[in-house]
Amino acid sequence: MYLVRNLRSWHGRVSSNDVLLGLIIANFAVFLLWKIADPVFMVKNFTLSLYIITSGRLHTLITSAFSHLVVEDILLNMFLLSVFGKDVGRTFGPEFLLKLYLAGAIGGSVFYLVQYVLLASKVP
């Protein structure tokens, strides 16, 4: 009960800008991890493939959305996230912004996997 009460208290103090900054920091942190961490670990935990999902690494449905390997990619994506994220957060609130980002991550990952399976089934 104590934890739930504290989470509710914390939730009320987080602004849309805090959520936006947290998402941007998380993306840059994962970008830096790609540069310094074990590549095998990163592939297993931050990329998306049918093999990885069937191996039980369901968390990659979300973590793959934080992976950027090229500087231009992360800079453009974080610029666009900040531009659109500010408007979304201001209009709908910080909780909606976070849920939208995570839903987009999961939705994009599922769409990618479905598309991959459909294309693979058409190969003779």
From TrEMBL:
E.C. number? 3.4.21.105
Q: What class of enzyme is it?
A: hydrolase
Q: Which family does it belong to?
A: Belongs to the peptidase S54 family.
Q: Where in the cell is it found?
A: Membrane
Q: How does it sit in the membrane?
A: Multi-pass membrane protein
Which is one Pfam family of this protein?
A: Rhomboid
Q: Where are the transmembrane segments?
A: 20-37, 58-80, 100-119
Keyword Ribonucleoprotein present in the record's keywords: the answer is: no
Predominant cellular place of this UniProt entry's protein: membrane
Query: What is the protein name given in its UniProt record?
Result: Putative rhomboid protease
For this UniProt entry, the molecular function terms from Gene Ontology, in alphabetical order, are:
serine-type endopeptidase activity
Q: Which GO terms describe its cellular component?
A: membrane
Give the keywords, sorted: Hydrolase, Membrane, Protease, Transmembrane, Transmembrane helix
Do the record's keywords include Acyltransferase? Answer: no
Which Gene Ontology terms describe the biological processes this protein takes part in? Answer: proteolysis
Start and end residues of each Peptidase S54 rhomboid domain: 56-114
